[in-house]
Please model this.
Amino acid sequence: MADIPGQPVTSALSARSLRDVLISFAQAGQGETLIRSLGPTDLERLLSDWPLFARDDQLPPEYAQGGGGWHTWLVLGGRGAGKTRTGAEWVRGVALGVPPFAQRPVGRIAIVGETMQDLREVMVDGVSGLLAVHPRWERPSWSASRRRLEWKNGAVAQGFSAEDPESLRGPQFGAAWCDELAKWAYADKAFDMLQFGLRLGERPRQVITTTPRPIALLKRLAGDARTALSRAPTRANAANLAPNFLAEIVSRYAGTRLGRQELDGLFIEESADALFSRATIEAARITHLPGLARIVVAIDPPAGGKRGGRCGIVVAGRDEAGLLYVLEDASLESARPESWAARAIEAYHRHDADALVAEVNQGGEMVASVLGARDASVPVTKVRAKRGKHIRAEPVAMLYAQGRVRHAGAFPALEDEMAAFGPDGLADGRSPDRLDALVWAITHLALDGEVGAPRVRRLS
Model:
């Protein structure tokens, strides 16, 4: 076996030494040489060195970020992003007292699953579960009847189902792993009972691995100063997923509410008094366009025509039957007048539109002049708001409720504004620029009765 000067590679090397050796060989372009020279024991030891292969979001925050003052580590991720492996490796580390997971072994650990079946089939026996992540010489014994994992050093992990919160009353622990908390039937009660038992040692801690849902408990934990937050989309773990999984799933769900939650691991909010519901928006989504009779580009320019403001730009069309289609959200978060004018006119030509519809309440004649200076051949229809945003949007919301509006694809930022827009506007106080542009486009198309020859349009 080849040696690095001053550091021979032998079967007596620790995983950490092997990691250093591998890095040195890789830097010298001899990584394959090292792998081929390792015996079965060394190779297994190397492959069990989780920090060597883990992504930063899969390692404890103090390891990846240089911090460490957390009580709860909240790991939010998409389906297949490696959340279970993250939780199982953390439990392995604290049970064995392996830095950076723990400075000394934690003797009593709680592992809590959505159901008892999930505890057994995913957290313990799963392909990324606790038994699988341990090399054979470290592997704990599992007693299914007692729901206990026992390590040779005396550490014990006790399994619980979130369906039975009362079972957590009484036991005490120094660490806990909660899996898929967003799906727990009795999330608040089970979590509260666990907190009362998390009282052993100098610094009890817990890891929560879950695909997020906007439940109150998760949002409260995410905003807690004692919570460290990690995020990972499904695509971050592409190397460990079936080759065709991402292509098929992403093509079907990318940008939709379900895809953003289940693939991107994001909280998808919806205001209780929103004018547009997420269910209505999802029901409007299509994958194939008919021939369109009219296409317009609507612009909601920055207030007062200010330089560098947000500008809503939405492209929409209408077919011969009068159904309406949102084709593109080309809005800009921050742009000078010449930039948003160029974006709107580019969309006009690309979609072969027949008009630009621009609100002129704030910008006055400046809006039309900026567009004209960019391309004087483009017809501009100036519209002026005489009523509040919510009142203007109500007829458009009615069209959605009647199933007369379709979304030709997914428009996450626009749809977030729609689902958050209530009587008092957006909760964060921002102007709903994308929604305003949508309202102008749909209103213009719905009220204009002239129908010309249809144009054949296909989604790319």
User: Anything to note?
Assistant: Residues 433-447 form the longest helix (15 residues).
